Amino acid sequence: MGIARLSCGNISVNIIYGLTVVLLSTGLDIVFIIMSYAMILCSVSVTFDSARFKALNTCGSHICVILMFYAPAFFSFLAHRFGGKTVPQHIYILVANLYVVVPPMLNPIIYGVKTKQIQERVILLWSPISTHCENEE
C-alpha cells in the first residue's frame, strides 16, 4: 500500500479489494480453526481428564501462535489502509519487523516449554549455582 499511495490515481478500488481479500481469507481461516477446535473438544469430552488437559494445552499453544501471527499482520494491514499520515513511519517498520521476526522466533519457545526435558533444563539453568554443584557430585 505504501507504493500504491505514491500513484497519482485513485486507489480506492485497490483498498476495497485488498480489504475484502484479507477479511475473506482470514475469516475462512478462523472459521476452519474454530471448527477443528470444536471437533477436538467434542472428541476429547468423552475421554479421560488427562487427554482433555493435553488437548486444551495444545490448543492454547496454537491460539498463542495464531494471535502472535495475526495481531501485527492486522495492525500493519489496517494501518496501511486507513492510517494515512497519522501513524508514524517508524511504527510501520517496527510492526513489519515484528511480524516477520517474532512468530518464527517464539514458535519453538511456545511449543518447547511443554517438553519435560526442556522444563528441567531451564529450571536447572535458572537455579542458584550451589544447586549446580550439588547435582554434579
Written overview of the protein:
- 81% of the residues lie in helices and 0% in strands.
- It has one domain (4-136).
- The mean pLDDT is 78.
- The longest helix is centred in the middle third of the chain and has 35 residues, at 49-83.
- It has helices spanning 12-44, 49-83, 89-112, 116-126, 129-136.
- One of its GO terms (cellular component) is plasma membrane.
- One of its GO terms (biological process) is G protein-coupled receptor signaling pathway.
Outline of this structure?
The protein is mainly alpha-helical and 137 residues long.
State the shape.
flat
Number of helices: 5
Tell me the distance between the termini.
62 Å
Question: Using DSSP, what is the number of strands?
Answer: 0
What attributes characterize this protein structure?
Olfact_rcpt; OR51/52/56-like; sensory transduction; Olfactory receptor 67
Question: How are the secondary structure elements laid out?
Answer:
Blueprint: H1 12-44, H2 49-83, H3 89-112, H4 116-126, H5 129-136
Helix pairs in contact: 1-2, 2-3
